[in-house]
Amino acid sequence: MPETLLITNGHVIDPANHIDKKCDVLIIDGKVEEVADHIPNKGGKNSAEKKVIDASGKLVTPGLIDIHVHFREPGDEEEETITSGSAAAVAAGFTSVVCMPNTKPPVEDETDVEYIHRKGRQARKTHVYTMGSITKGQEGIELAEMGFMAEAGAVGFTDDGRGLQNTSVMLKALKYASMFNKVIAQHCQDDTIAGEGVMNAGYFSTILGLPGIDSLAEQAILWRDIQLVKKLRNGNVRYHAQHISTVSSVELIRQAKKESLPVTCEVTPHHLLFTEEMCAEYDTNYKVNPPLRTAADVAALKEAIAEGLVDALVTDHAPHLQSEKELEFLSAPFGIASLECALGLYVKVLIEPGILDWPGLIKLLTIGPAGVIGIDKGSLSKGKQGDVTIIDPKAEYKIDVNTFHSKSRNCPYNNWKVTGRVEKTIVGGEIRFEAPA
Amino acid sequence: MRKKTEQFVWTRKHLLGLRQLTADELTHILDTAAGFEQIGKQTVKKAPALRGKLVVNLFFEDSTRTRNSFTLAASRLSADVINFTKKESSVSKGETLLDTARNLEAMGIDIVVIRHSAAGAATLLSRNITACVVNAGDGYCEHPTQGLLDVYTIRKLRGSLKGLKIAIVGDIAHSRVARSDMWAMTKLGAEVIFVGPPTLMPADVGRLPVSVSTSLDEIIEKVDVINMLRIQFERQSSNPFPSVREYSHYFGLTVDRMKKAKPNIIVMHPGPINRGLEMESEVADGANSAILQQVSNGVAVRMAVLFLVSQAAAQTNV
Question: Could you report the per-residue pLDDT of B12-55, keeping only the tens digit for each?
């Protein structure tokens, strides 16, 4: 039974309601009851005994949301499970996560969706959502049962891990998903250009002798998809460009938003923190897809965030076994396990250089991503689910992969010093995570 | 010879590529190789430099010629040699590269000579084992001993590489030889021109220390050395040129084309030659061809490399 919680003296940042000041938050029966300057502990209409959390010097925000994680279940439970991933999520302040459906087998019907939800409920940490596959077996040919998946609670559809190649299938997917008012999320990559590439195509791929993925691969698919969205612009069509990584993608998104197309996009911390040069020692912890790009691309992504073109920050948390990441760069799998250190990274790359202020950052971790997938979360409005993250914005700490709740350690941020730590994570009015004292 | 070289101390216990080397280091290897070349001409073709050392040839790709050259180099220096060949690297099933290496190391090896289809394989190995690692070709990243024997051959014929114009012709994108040659040749003062169709040029070729041409006819008159690369059919996903006939027409070294070349042009090829594709037999076997000298120089260069890395390891282990 959720307690009645009173969070006092914190600095509340609730971008959806334009709140950015010191005040109190009251949660009753797992729902937000009130956000006000001073809420008395005793008396008033809510006379029940309250558990008081003193949040002096802390930030109190709507629970953080990451709409792009890989929890590997079912199929690769040795890398991550919904239980271990959920524990990692709340430790990082995330009260809602969206799992990608490229599991083994992929999520492609209502039973699969229900399985993810059930595992999430059993873990009893964070709200676990999932997207469904766009196509059966993620083969890019036949549409998967989007209707049944949507009814079971899938929040969108994607073949993430690879791009949906066939233009006519994409057109059908956009139309069909609109019937259920669900977003189609695309891993923008043209396979014919990307080929067997393992890093950005350019000077470094050439001197390292590794096959490259030209930025054109992303540009080509994003451009094509935007043309389809433009053609379909009436109705409930929604398109989301996942983990964009290039100058040209930013330009395409800018243009699409100027035309008020129903197009959203997301950016990962690694595409903001690293360039292709990091692959120079064949360190597979820097092997990601889309690949790390150039300094110009990084600059364009930061500019896009400053400009308000980006809707959500996502980790693309991609856990892998050490034995797999120890393979040759060519053979090692793509991905970084970064869920657990995300907040510190965002502070380092966005707040410290002044690209965003705290309300700007929290927006991209709450109401922004909630809007992309259309869930009623991400704010502290009265009656909303009592998901709250309490952050110590001044706490400095060293990222240590050995303390991760995640099962994987493929994280290039190990030993980084960062600022901004999650103190408490409250999900549905229950304290699900407390930082060790 | 050069004063600097006499005082030079070699410190690298691995040879992973030529990109990382300085001109002095390159020259030091070549000078060391020149000394070892004499051993091959003695009646007893052996020196005791690596006696008691164990060299493992760890070849994940077929290469009889490079492996034999390393085997010969090691045995001329009195090392024991084990050949370990594996057809394919293991991805998910079987033993990984690192497991293989750790197993070999448990046998007490001193030097691993590795050939692998994945770029960076030698680097990966060097980070994880204590033995010396010599790269015998990794994907299309580098083939440092081939680059060394190429510059050794040119230096022997011309005295120096300074100011020479060298064309490297063909499949640059998929060639580790082109990359190792480029680093060695440019560091030693030569001017390198990559020649081939744009579909066989690597990404961002403009940022490499070379110039690029699509016309062998224009280039052939100007160069002192021409290195014809082998077309790597096995590494292509889709054909970067329409037909062998058309490729040979534009980029084959024919008897006719040779007429436009400088009379003393040095013709090279890393082998094995696709006769009639990269060059006509008359050219491969002709007076300007240095192809067989490349092969014999390869042994001396590999002796120098094995010797130097082993010396460096001995120094660091003191």
Answer: 999 999 999 999 999 999 999 999 998 888 888 889 999 999 99
Q: What is the pLDDT of residues A343-354, one digit of tens each?
A: 999 999 999 999
Confidence at A152, pLDDT banded by 50, 70, 90: very high
B246 to each of B249, B251, B277, how far by Cα in Å? 5, 9, 10
Chain B residues 264-303 with CB within 8 Å of chain A: none
Q: What are residue A158's DSSP bridge partners? A: A185
The whole-angstrom distance between residue A7's C-alpha and the CA centroid of its chain comes to 26
pLDDT at B1: 45
Cα–Cα dist B184/A198, whole Å: 27
Report the pLDDT value the prediction gives residue B64, as an integer from 0 to 100: 87
Q: Which of B100, B123, B128, B187 to mutate to test the interface with A (most CBs of A within 10 A)?
A: B123
Total of domains in chain B: 2
Residues 6+ apart with CB under 8 A from A268: A68, A243, A288, A313, A314, A315, A316, A338
Query: With an 8 Å Cβ cutoff, are B179 and A330 in contact?
Result: no
Question: Would the CB atoms of A323 and B96 count as touching at under 8 Å?
Answer: yes
| Per-residue pLDDT reduced to its tens digit, B45-84 | 889 999 999 999 999 988 889 999 999 999 999 999 999 8
Q: Which residues of A touch B237 (CB under 8 A)?
A: 195-196
Domains and CATH numbers, chain A: 5-60+384-397+416-434 (2.30.40.10), 63-373 (3.20.20.140)
> CB count, 10 Å around CB of A21?
10
CATH number at residue B41: 3.40.50.1370
Task: Please state the pTM of the whole predicted model.
Answer: 0.93
* Main-chain dihedrals φ then ψ at residue A344, nearest 5 degrees: -60, -35
B307 and B252 in a common domain: no
Contact A219, A242 (CB under 8 A): no
**Strand A5-14, strand A51-54: pairing:** parallel
Q: How many whole angstroms separate alpha carbon A68 and alpha carbon A130? A: 9
* Domain with B304 in it: 3-142+296-316
DSSP string, A272-286: HH--GGGGGG--GGG
Residues from chain A contacting residue B116 (CB–CB below 8 Å) = 328
The pLDDT of residue A256 is 98
What tokens were used for B167?
A: 């064309």
Does one domain contain both B160 and B257? yes
B122 and B151 housed in the same domain:
no
